[in-house]
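User: Let's play a game. I give you a shape written as tokens, and you guess the letters that built it. Ready? Here's round one.
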């Protein structure tokens, strides 16, 4: 178990024996990694609950605790997501912090993927945050599609001014414009499909008149022509 340090192992064993431990914040990652690798789920849960509480109470920097959660826990971990969601609640504080520009792709991706930030009111803010990060990290332009995949453009593209503003902002980052244009095209198509498949449109009667013809059983077939049928020579 190369990831487990002596400090981490000591604290996990102490927790198993007594049900409680105290450790310094500088030891957080060592303890969290050890608890996670040794599958002491109750300790992982308690640590992440404490991390989330500290974020929400503004007693610890959200970026540093976000980093610890991303570094120590797997992407599918519900406890990691707990901390990420707590950090997402403090999104404006994170964005205002100069350290935001130093976020790794993994940290930024996890942050903007949080369900906390998926409402339509967040679309423009998430997009602007991505632009801001890419402006200052242009070497990471290849991450743009993955990041933009978390921007629900469909929620705002029905307004022409929004579409223009989105394209205008994309020009702030070299080579980003064509990528954003593709996402906008996808969003417009998705919006169109949603409109076609909405219940009110599916149940809407046809605008043209429908003809109903009955009495087919009384139709009289035309009488055959009298005489012989010959072939032209």
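Assistant: Ready! My guess for every position:
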């Amino acid at each position: 178990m190369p990831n487990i340090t002596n400090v981490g192992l000591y604290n996990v064993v102490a927790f198993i024996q007594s049900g409680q431990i105290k450790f310094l914040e500088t030891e957080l990652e060592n303890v969290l990694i050890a608890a996670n690798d040794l599958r002491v789920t109750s300790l992982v849960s308690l640590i992440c609950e404490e991390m989330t509480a500290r974020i929400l109470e503004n007693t610890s920097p959200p970026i540093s605790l976000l980093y610890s959660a991303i570094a120590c826990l797997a992407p599918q971990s519900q406890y990691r997501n707990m901390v990420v969601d707590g950090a997402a609640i403090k999104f404006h504080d994170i964005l205002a912090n100069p350290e935001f520009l130093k976020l790794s792709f993994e940290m930024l991706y996890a942050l903007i993927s949080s369900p906390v930030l998926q409402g339509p009111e967040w679309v423009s803010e998430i997009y602007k945050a991505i632009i801001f990060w890419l402006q200052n990290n242009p070497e990471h332009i290849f991450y743009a599609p993955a990041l933009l995949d978390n921007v629900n453009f469909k929620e705002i593209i029905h307004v022409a001014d929004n579409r223009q503003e989105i394209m205008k902002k994309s020009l702030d980052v070299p080579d980003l414009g064509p990528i954003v244009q593709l996402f906008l095209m996808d969003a417009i198509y998705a919006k169109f499909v949603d409109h076609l498949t909405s219940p009110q449109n599916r149940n809407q009667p046809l605008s043209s008149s429908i003809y109903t013809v009955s009495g087919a059983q009384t139709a009289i077939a035309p009488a055959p022509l009298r005489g012989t049928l010959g072939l032209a020579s």
